[in-house]
Every structure is written in C-alpha cells, then in structure tokens.
C-alpha cells in the first residue's frame, strides 16, 4: 500500500465530498467546516480503514467503483476526527489556539461557529458512510453495522465519554488503569472502529474482524501514549500545535505516571500487541507499516 498516494487521494476525496455536501449550506457554516476538514493532517484513521480493508480482502482486487466507495467510507471517519479536534480545542474544553500549524477553528471563526461546525460534521459523516456502503454493495445488515460501529466509538461510551473523563481528571492524581480507561475512550475506540469497519466492509469472517479490532485498540492506545510523549519532547513547529499544554492543564499523562522511558516502552509494547494480532493475516503489510509510523512519528 502506497501510503503517500493514499493520503493524497484521501485529501482529494474529502474536497469532493465537501464540494457536493455543502452546496446548500450557508457560507457561515460551510467555510469553517472546510477549514476544519481540509487542514493538513496525517490521515491515520482513513489510512487504517483502507489498510484493514486490504488485509481482510486477502489481496482481492477492487473494481474502480468499489475503490472510490472505500475511500469515501474511510473519509467518514476523518470527518468524525475533525469534529473531535474542533470541539477539543474550544475554550470550555482544552482551550488551544493552534492546531495543525494554523489557528484553531474558534480562534479563526469564533466559538459559535466552531460548536456548530463540529456538530454538523457528525451527521455528515454518517451520511457519507451510509452512501458509501450502498455504493460498495455490502447489504443492509453490514451497512447498519458500520454505522453502529462508528457512532458507538464516537459517543458516550467512546470518544465523547473519554473526553469528559479526561477533563474530570485534570489537576488530580490518576493511576495507570484509569488513564488507560480515559484514552481507550478518547482515542483508541475510534482507531479501533476504523479497523473493524475495514473488516466488515470487506466481508471478512468474524474472527478476522475481531482480530483487526484488537489490533486497532492496541494501536490506538499506543497512539495516545506517543501523543503524551510528544507533548513533553516535541516542538510546536514540528507538531503544528502548542507543546506543553498537558502540563499547563494539569492533565494525567503516561510520562507523568511511568516516566518518559516507561512511556516509550509502553508504546512499543502496545505496538507489539497490535502486530501480533495481524501476524496470521496476509496482505497486512500496510497495517504493519502504519503501526511503526505511529510510534516513530514526530507530530
């Protein structure tokens, strides 16, 4: 899997999706949505969905229409991720003024526009996913399962719930088990969802889907551990966001609990767990490559 080419195609697909879906939207809503979604990013989540879809297909080629549908399905998760970043940065949340090397959405457009743009992205993601599932021809049951996976990972038992737990943990002592619970919800559940969705969309056997999900859950937690490390060691220029914010906000982090070296060892161990899950699968080279990128990244 050529990740750079795939990342470029994700960006192009996002542009075309927004061009079609925002035709009737007022510019006061459309402009901040474009600002949020089209900001330069790693696109890890859509790349994971496509890589798991490839692994679950066991090398079977896709027709042109199927390939387009998979890219659009992958973009549905990026829309959810974009919404989460917009709301995470709000003054009532983490209160950040820099994201992906640019002013955060509420700094650029105001708090109200940021709240509403973020809110608009979740139903848009479901619409994109539902349409892509129809185009892929996977059947109503599988399409419904895909929507269920995405919405569950994004909601109270997933990303939203994890964010609330994270805010409530600010300024107090937190143990490693509680920190894992926070970040399994805030970060790992959506990454796990990408991998589950790729398997379901490919029509994989349930045992394979579960294996992909375990890969995603471990990798998602590793992603957050590395985020915590970079907040201590990285620069604002390299990361595209303000460094040292976790300490300023009194957040519980892995380096605070186990130290930088302990956090690095934990990230490596989680990636090993993830790789063990995909070892029996063929055509999983893209997943292995993404796993290494997660722990070796500088932003």
Describe what this molecule looks like in 3D.
By secondary structure, the protein is an all-alpha fold. The protein has a single domain (3-296), classed as Farnesyl Diphosphate Synthase (Orthogonal Bundle), CATH 1.10.600. It is built from 14 helices and 2 strands. The protein has helices at residues 3-21, 27-37, 44-57, 64-88, 105-109, 111-136, 140-154, 159-168, 176-201, 206-233, 236-239, 245-249, 254-278, 285-296; strands at 98-99, 102-103. Strands 1-2 form a two-stranded antiparallel ribbon. Strand 1 (98-99) and strand 2 (102-103) form a beta hairpin. Helix 2 (27-37) packs across helix 6 (111-136) and helix 9 (176-201) packs across helix 10. It starts with a helix and ends with a helix. The mean pLDDT is 94.
Count of separate structural domains: 1
The largest sheet has its strands arranged as 1-2
Q: How many helical stretches?
A: 14
Structural class label: mainly alpha
Query: Remind me, CATH topology?
Result: Farnesyl Diphosphate Synthase
Described by strand count, sense and barrel closure, the largest sheet is: 2 strands, antiparallel
Top CATH class: Mainly Alpha
